[in-house]
Amino acid sequence: MIEEVKSKILKHMKQAPQSITSRGLIKKLNIKDSKDFYRALNQLKQEGLVSVDQKHRVRLVEKKETVKAKIVSLSKGFAFARPADGGEDMFIHADNLKSAFIGDMVELNNVKQSPKGLSADVDAISEKSSRTITGTLSRGAGLCELIPDDAIRYHIPVEKAAMMNAKNGDKVQAEIHRTPHTSMLSARIVKVYGKSNSAKICSDAIIDQNQIKTKFSDEVLAEAKRIAAQTITEQDLKGRLDLRDTSICTIDGADAKDLDDAISVSKTKAGFKLGVHIADVSHYITQGSAIDAEALERGTSVYFADRVIPMLPKKISNGVCSLNAGEDKLTFSAIIELDKQGEILNYQFKKSVIHSKVRGVYSEVNQLFEKTADADLKKKYSPVIRSLNAAKELADILKARSIKNGTVDLDSTESKFTLDDKGVCIDVQPRHSGLSEQMIEQLMITANQAAAKLAKERDIPFVYRVHEQPSPDRVDSLAELVGALGLNPRSLKHKGDIATADFADIMRQAEGTPAQKVISHQLLRTMAKARYDTHPIGHFGLALADYCHFTSPIRRYPDTAIHRILSAMLETKSKEELNKRFLAFANTAAANSSSAEVRAMQAERSAEDCYMAEYMSQHLGDCYTGVISGVTMRGVFVELPNSVEGFVPTLSFEGADYRFDGMITQVDEKSGNKLTIGQSLDVKVVAADVASGRIDFIPNI
To answer: Looking at CB atoms within 10 Å, which of 170, 332, 409, 541 has the fewest?
Structure first.
């Protein structure tokens, strides 16, 4: 109701921009409930859209030169906003926040530079975020507070009348309310998840906090059931390339159920013929259907240690679209011919039908390549062994070519979690990529590259995967760090744009040194974030002019979108018709998919932190030798061999007086001892908070 009244007020003020008294406005709009009117007017005033003077005259606020930004942290007395187009975060005093909340998009004015950094005022709230957050209930004698999970840096009092029987230490969801005319917040609990010392429970809250949908509507499930019941007909096969006799196989993890890509490789006189055969999801999921709308909204499947939240219902992702061995399956194939140096000679994209000969597993194929496979494994893969050996040979050539072109091979560590039958994390180890995983990655990159080349050549609406040049300021900071670590930053200091090969040079220098992981991490932070766009501006990280995501339509919407566009392109050569059908669609798919990817990554990382803390909570008092992975004003981060990272405050070094050099080192002014990035450090685990994902170490001296 309030939003309707706000809309009426704004509409009238834009049509008749002269000032009017609040009472006059009530009469003009014929609003019966004055309480609703004044609540709406007060909100519009707080949002900076209207002004009300001492004589109660209402005026529309004129638009000023402002900076669009997002509130990224909230503390008592101040907040920080991050500009939408990049740049450093801006300080905002609480008096100039205009009731903006964490996650709100705001327009900033009065931007000023000071020795401490940029500051600004909120001119208006352009887009409100949810006022529902998650956190942990802290309940003591006469005190009840919410410890927010979000970047709200203080505890929020909980209204005792809205407790929902929540107990101390419970993970809860709460609505946040602001006391009128003040900056005071209060929380009303609306959902209780359970004990916050459970990573599984915390993951439930993280899913809600990131607004990730876990259930499909009855309409979507009914539609999925109808699709799953479909069988392949003669009409479906009409015009398709019949590859059922070709030596094709899938290769995935042992527990994967949504098999959306298969491969075939053969050697030719010129070099190689590569077939990348992708589940023809767009054949089953039509534009405008309930499932399509749901998939567009979800954007991507989300992966947690204990569950997968799929983009598509399981009857489709694990059933009709999954390229199960021994079954005829409809596919969209990229047929690519390459020379002996891995150069793409030509390519074509065809609707096809395949019959996968083997359900390959990464660990098994690795044994084949490492010559450790037993007789049973050799027999299983005998129908496709020639294809696999050719694929491995081609992938090695592609990898060498990629390195020669300057691709950065970052040393990024992913973690693998082992859970017991109750869902409790009992082990964490770094995830290793074997020969078969690396092979599939190279073949998929080639197919993605070919699809993007085709779209750019035809100049059709498309969803590209883009990765922009890093900003000069970030490159300068990287060069300073590289120099401080004793490496040569010359490749980062030449004139003109930085090339991917310049980053690769730094990584080569760091290889095998204690600084390798730190440099890899810093290179990643220096780069822009990859995203989806309708313009083919290239991919910096892969050193490719053309790139997209074609190979995973079961779990990523951009792949589904471009399958649909390329399918239409095969049916019509009319660029005008393709623009009419897909120009707006491609823009929407790119924007929604980029947002969904960020949301999923944030949720996955937060959940991983909780699982790591849950594991380390079982090892309090244990000692480890780790490597210093980061240095801050207050202490150092230490990464253990199992990939877990924890914090060591400098105050925990008894008798020392450490001072931060502002870059990579803490120096003890008494002894001269140093704590620097890449250095080994013996530590003891002293605390692990599952709710926040925080792990604390102290030096084990």
So the answer is: 409
